[in-house]
């Protein structure tokens, strides 16, 4: 995600990918056993001086992995991270050490990131010593200053983490990050482990520190209301990729990717400006070891595009897609048997599958209905492969064949969705203006 203000970004990631392997142990790795977890899968991001970018998405979409890669805790599999134009993935160890102090990480759970054996002064002092920020004789004084900066009195210096509340521990985590005088903080769910009123205190502290020191934040959170209050820009992440980015005002006023719509509509007290329908996503996100082809969101997308040649309505096509997704599961055989109970005559009724997936008994497009009827007959005969093939040939969507790219709907609000691509909608105006081509 980029801005068009012409400023050189502080942090810039290009084509960034970070993978894990599920292989256990060296032998598995040598033998190539295990699968690749594509946790971050090609992300471009710019963070400018003094701004806050909110990174949002469901659990497991890759937010923490991206944050840790930016700060150098994880090695990227591809792409680059630059800080003030210097490539962090290609510079010497010494230079890297210097530069890395400019980007600090604030962890979600300060209890696990603070050493329980160290007092607050020792924890913060350790950060001061590692980066040689102040002479040893000045360290205590600097610790007291940092405590004051994060709203704690100097006598907290002698306490241990277990003697502090959650909010106080988070303040120490922030003081520790500030000790090395960074320009950028990656704040990973900084308040999600805290109670409501304590959360507000930490969020206000982050806002005050930004004003005071001109800090830039990457704010990782699954809580969109936090982002709405603090972030200048937002990146919405799904299965390791950005699906929509833009200024916070744009993304909240006109959320355009169906995934963003679903996330926004799930905020407990919907934004007063949000006038769309509640969008409920079915099922969990697919595994990043097996990212669906085309648009990674198509298996859950409430607005998946029907094939160009069909006259199907969105809802009926979505229902057929839900059935196709279920039948592509590894355990689809067992699922089919459960959904197609056999009667006394040992035959199964294909209509039971339509009912189970809210597919109308008669689709609005007669050709599509014939194809579906054939496929369901094959399912009733227990022929899963024939069912899949028939459904795939009649109901293939561009969303499963073509990967959408994050292209400008408007220059500052790009969206990776075929609904904004006139090749698939025939709606040139929608593609150019970035407005939705169908009603909410
Ligand atoms: N060390 C690891 N080894 C293998 N897979 C991992 C590892 N760490 C994370 N993953 C996987 O990578 C994907 C992205 O995880 P990540 O923690 O970055 O997501 P997240 O959006 O930050 O989620 P959460 O909000 O739950 O922290 C997930 O599928 C996760 O299971």
TrEMBL record:
Domain ABC transporter span(s) in chain numbering: 21-264
GO molecular function annotation: ATP binding; ATP hydrolysis activity
Keyword ATP-binding: yes
GO biological process terms, semicolon-separated: peptide transport; transmembrane transport
One Pfam family in the UniProt entry: oligo_HPY
Superkingdom in the source lineage: Archaea
InterPro entries on file: AAA+_ATPase, ABC_transp_ATP-bind, ABC_transporter-like_ATP-bd, ABC_transporter-like_CS, Oligopep_ABC_C, P-loop_NTPase
Swiss-Prot/TrEMBL keywords: ATP-binding, Nucleotide-binding, Transport
Family matches, as PROSITE patterns: ABC_TRANSPORTER_1 (PS00211), ABC_TRANSPORTER_2 (PS50893)
NCBIfam families in the cross-refs: oligo_HPY
Family: Belongs to the ABC transporter superfamily.
Protein name: Peptide/nickel transport system ATP-binding protein
